């Protein structure tokens, strides 16, 4: 089953998984490990899968690997949640990628800004509208870097039926506040997509931005999903506790080197027994000191030594507590 673009804003209003891309010892794609890691992420009750995006090292993938990653995610999801693939680089490559994503069974795409170009509002609008005209898939536009939109541009993007939302990587509240009030939220959604999105999630809730992407879910799915439920149910005490124990120390580690938002996530999943391999260049692996600090952070969280799929009944109980 494919998710239609009409269903997408409501379907994606939740905790969104951005899987790492595992590589084997020789540095090749490890589709078997991706399969089991995606099963693990799904077991934690996510609302959507975004394979081959930033956390999935989109820029380092070959076209064949890209297609395999998407078809693996689609096979694991079995239609239970939408699968949206990262697309980008430029007009023709983004169009080819969206067609590959469609052929691999994806329900939609997350459109990264055009590489090394920073046009004006009208040109951005043309860029996204012409991509949308080439596919029946739902498109979420990634607002980040130079691709920052006026409220008017967002309102015009929202007029395109299969452009279903914005994933915001800026965290600029004053900008988002204007954008959310410019559209019909029942058919156009907003996703908090800043690096380590948990950091900003409490601040964006008052604006009705309740969906967010979680890279931390790859490393500490137990606590990332608990954080999401605590936030949804208004358990501010637990939210603050998890911010202090999990999110803030991770962000301090992440900020030590450019690229750590991805490589520490991969290393963290590896420390918990996932068969992830290392990151591809130009990303760098954490140095020994930072790896030791990552290990200490993880040990302090007192989780099981290895990643284990969620017991769905436990997840139901957490949700019910706050219902
Ligand atoms: O493209 C990506 O992988 C992202 O930007 C999503 C991440 O999950 C980001 O929100 C984060 O680091 O939590």
From TrEMBL:
<protein>
    <submittedName>
        <fullName>5-dehydro-4-deoxyglucarate dehydratase</fullName>
        <ecNumber>4.2.1.41</ecNumber>
    </submittedName>
</protein>
<dbReference type="Pfam" id="PF00701">
    <property type="entry name" value="DHDPS"/>
</dbReference>
<dbReference type="InterPro" id="IPR002220">
    <property type="entry name" value="DapA-like"/>
</dbReference>
<dbReference type="InterPro" id="IPR013785">
    <property type="entry name" value="Aldolase_TIM"/>
</dbReference>
<dbReference type="GO" id="GO:0047448">
    <property type="term" value="F:5-dehydro-4-deoxyglucarate dehydratase activity"/>
</dbReference>
<comment type="similarity">
    <text>Belongs to the DapA family.</text>
</comment>
<keyword id="KW-0456">Lyase</keyword>
């Amino acid at each position: 089953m494919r998710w239609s673009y009409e269903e997408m804003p409501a379907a994606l209003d939740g905790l969104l998984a951005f899987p790492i891309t595992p590589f084997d010892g020789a540095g090749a794609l490890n589709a078997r490990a991706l399969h089991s890691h995606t099963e693990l992420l799904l077991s934690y009750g996510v609302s959507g899968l975004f394979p081959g995006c930033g956390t999935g090292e989109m820029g380092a993938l070959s076209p064949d690997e890209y297609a395999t990653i998407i078809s693996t995610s689609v096979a694991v999801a079995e239609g239970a949640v939408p699968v949206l693939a990262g697309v980008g680089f430029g007009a023709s490559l983004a169009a080819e990628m969206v067609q590959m994503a469609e052929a691999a069974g994806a329900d939609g795409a997350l459109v990264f800004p055009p590489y090394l170009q920073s046009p004006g509002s009208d040109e951005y609008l043309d860029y996204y509208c012409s991509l949308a005209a080439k596919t029946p898939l739902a498109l979420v536009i990634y607002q980040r870097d130079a691709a920052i939109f006026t409220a008017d541009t967002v309102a015009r993007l929202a007029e395109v039926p299969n452009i279903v939302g914005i994933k915001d990587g800026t965290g600029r509240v004053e900008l988002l506040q204007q954008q959310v009030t410019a559209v019909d939220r029942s058919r156009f959604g907003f996703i908090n997509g800043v690096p380590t999105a948990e950091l900003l999630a409490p601040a964006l809730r008052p604006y009705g931005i309740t969906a967010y992407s979680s890279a931390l879910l790859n490393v500490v799915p137990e606590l990332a999903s608990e954080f999401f439920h605590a936030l949804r149910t208004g358990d501010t005490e637990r939210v603050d506790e998890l911010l202090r124990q999990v999110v803030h120390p991770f962000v301090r580690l992440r900020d030590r080197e450019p690229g750590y938002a991805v490589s520490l996530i991969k290393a963290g999943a590896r420390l918990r027994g996932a068969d992830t391999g290392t990151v591809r260049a130009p990303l760098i692996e954490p140095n020994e000191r930072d790896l030791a600090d990552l290990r200490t952070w993880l040990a302090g969280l007192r989780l099981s030594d290895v990643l284990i799929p969620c017991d769905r009944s436990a997840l139901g109980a957490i949700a019910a507590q706050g219902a």
